[in-house]
Structure formats: C-alpha cells, structure tokens
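INTERNAL AUDIT FORM
Audit reference: QA-55
Scope: verify that the stored structure record matches its stored sequence.
Auditor: D.O.
Record contents follow.
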Amino acid sequence: GVPLMLQIFIIYYVPGLVFDKPIFSNVDRYFLVNFGMQDAGRILAVLIAFTINYACYFSEIYRGGIESISKGQYEAGQVLGMTKTQTFFHVVLLQVVKRIVPPMGNEIITLVKDTSLVYILGLGDLLRQGKIYANSLSSLTPFLVVGILYFIVITIISKGCEKIEQKFSYF
C-alpha cells in the first residue's frame, strides 16, 4: 500500500543512509567509468522498486485467481485419476488464466503509466522529454504528443488483453 514514488525514494536513498555509503551513486560511477553508461545506479534502483511493487500486486492477482477455482475442479481431476500437479496444470491453470487476464491487464497499464515516476531520480522518460520540448517551444503541444503516445501504448495493451480473454472464453 506504500506509494510507488515513496518506494523509489526509499530504495535509492535509504541504503546510503543506513550503510553511510551512497550505494547507487557508486554504481553510477562504476558503470560510467567502465562502460560509459550514465545513470546505471538510478536505473537499478527504479528497476528494484518497480519489481518489488508489481511482483506483490501480480502475486496477489495469481493467488486470488487460484483460490477462486472451486474445490470441485480439484475433485474432478482426482476422480479422473490425475495427480495434483496434472490437475493444476491441465484443469485449474487454464481457468485461472482466464480469470486473471483483466486484472493483470489493468496492472500492466498502471505499470506503463507509473514509468513517468522515474523523473524523481532525474532519469529521462517520455514525460520528461515532453516537458523539455514544451519549455523550449513555449507550447503545450509536446504534452499532447506524449499523451497520444501513452494512449497508443495503452490501447495496444488493452487490445492484446482482449485477444487473450477471447482465446480463453470457452471456459
């Protein structure tokens, strides 16, 4: 329930405070010197924050989907002589996938929109580039273009989820 922005701050700054060493700044410096790559420490911190945050949400979606399958499905597999593993993979999992596609799609869309939060660590993203162009052009048109790009990406994800839902509609 902690906001993602706060998680990004905690993951980037707290280890440095606890260990009295700027861990992610050292990663930045190492990758810049050895590989010419900038912002590697910030990118790593953001990846860790996004991974932890969305792994929690996705695991809850999977758990809820698995628990939503009635005990009768497991019993039917047992009556047919299937092992628990066979019952899960051949009977239950297909029904779970159908049930979790809508909430998974919602979380993936939220993930795409949350990528704009990386600006708090000074990383470049689509929204930041729009802001730079809007300031240089003294126009709001770049923000409109950014909005359209987000809309296109989210529409593609939504259509993909619809196709997956239709594929599993026989349950």
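Auditor finding: record pair retrieved intact. The longest helix spans residues 84-114.
Action required: none
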